[in-house]
Amino acid sequence: MELGVSEQHPDEKFRHGLRLIEIAYDERSRLAELELNQLRSMNKERQGQITALESRVAELEAHMREANERANHVANERDLARNELKAVQRDMAKLDQFKRSILQSIKDEDVAPTLATSSVSHDHGLRGGAHNLMYGTQQLAGAHQYTPAIRSPATAATYSESYRTGTGLSAVPSRSNGAHRSAAVAPPSTPAYTEMQIAHSAPAPTPAPLGAPAPAPPSSSTAHVDGKDFFKAARLRLSYEQFNTFLINIRSLNDRLQTQEETLAQARNIFGPDNQDLFFQFKELLVKHGLT
């Protein structure tokens, strides 16, 4: 076999070597092409992954920007809420103090109806006593009145002077025994009787005209308003329903169900034109407690 090969011609050997080289080259090229295709497919996959990762990075960056903006917005809202909470706490402290003063005033006013009733009874007693005193004086003067049949101007003047000075009717010249008896029992002059004469002789006060303007409310700079005195006056001057409505109005202000302007408007309607001084005192109390 070796002899056969060795005996071959050199050209045949050369051609045989070239075929071997071609076969090896083709095999090597095929393997390189397969490897190149694999690398290309891998490169394509990597490019797809890179594109996906880039889009994911862009999406995450957008989310991060939105999160930063949301965080800044939440921080601003937190600061605003903290400031509003402090303001609400201050207002609640003022309203709580105002509520305690109102409750204390209501507790102190529990004895006000009894005092008002006794004051009214005492006033009625004084008026009744004055009326009885005036009626008794008039009856006594009518029972002992002396009317002579003929009286000269001098006699009439003397009678009026004696009656005014309280010396009785003894200074008047009598013409009958009945006149002496009237002069003997004439009532002496007393201060109460003199005051009654002055009260009846004094002219009545002239009522104000209907078109006259109402008096101006007292200024807060000249009059100091006390909460207890205000609620005592309001409870005495308002009716039971009006006073309860006024307390409900204040409770609505405490619960922040209405504004100060609405509270003042309802208070003006509750007090009415006859109690405008109470309205201005209530407004001054709100200013005093820092609620307007």
UniProtKB/TrEMBL annotation:
Residues 36-91 form a coiled coil. Residues 204-218 have a biased composition (Pro residues). Pfam families: At4g15545_C. Residues 166-179 have a biased composition (Polar residues). Residues 224-289 form the At4g15545-like C-terminal domain. Keywords: Coiled coil. Residues 166-190, 202-224 are annotated as: Disordered. This is At4g15545-like C-terminal domain-containing protein.
